[in-house]
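ARCHIVE RECORD
Type: protein–small molecule complex
Small molecule: zinc ion
Source of inputs: curated submission
Record status: active
Notes field left blank by submitter.
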Amino acid sequence: MGHVINLANLFIGLNVILGNQISVVMKKWNLLLLACCVLMASCYSQNSQKKQTVMDTTKKSNNPVYSTTDTAKVVMKEEEWKKILSPEVYEIARQKGTERPWSSKFEDYKEVGTYYCAACGNALFKSDTKFESGCGWPSFYEPISKAAIIYTPDNTHGMQRTEVQCGRCKAHLGHVFDDGPKPTGLRYCINGVVLDFEKAKAAEKKYEEKKR
Ligand SMILES: [Zn+2]
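STRUCTURE (tokenized, with ligand):
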């Protein structure tokens, strides 16, 4: 009898230990599942946030001159610009500032679409003229049209450079250098802060909607 009781006790004991282990394993799985869910949720929200910043409409609610379709020149007082632009965009577009190298999300961006002036919506560059220059700023070898860009000599900081401005609102965009790739041999070195991007498919859809 003694043996039987002992065996029974052992069996119960084993069950308890195994049960504990199983429940520990289950808890681990639950935690893992939870972690996966949290990760997926954060990825999803990051993606949707990304889409919101990248996708762009033809207008901006707080900026009355912003339009990706209107090509009429924009002339406005500095104080007006200050009111409608974000401090980052204002600093570069109107104060001729320069963003930190490697700081732009557009530096190694490879989506297909069009880049617009973040101050006024003027179309500036197509993604197929973008190239990796390694200079730390988004680089293009050709503007979308001749009228898209204005060129101005810039002799500041002890250098002789050519400043690149938006052809519609004269926002400072960056500089152009002659060490770019074929076919133009030019490198438009542009501050990503003053660029808006719209994916080709979204632009196409908008164009189709307009035709109707
Ligand atoms: Zn502009």
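CURATOR ANNOTATION: The pocket of zinc ion is lined by residues 117, 119-120, 122, 166, 168-169, 171 (CB under 6 Å).
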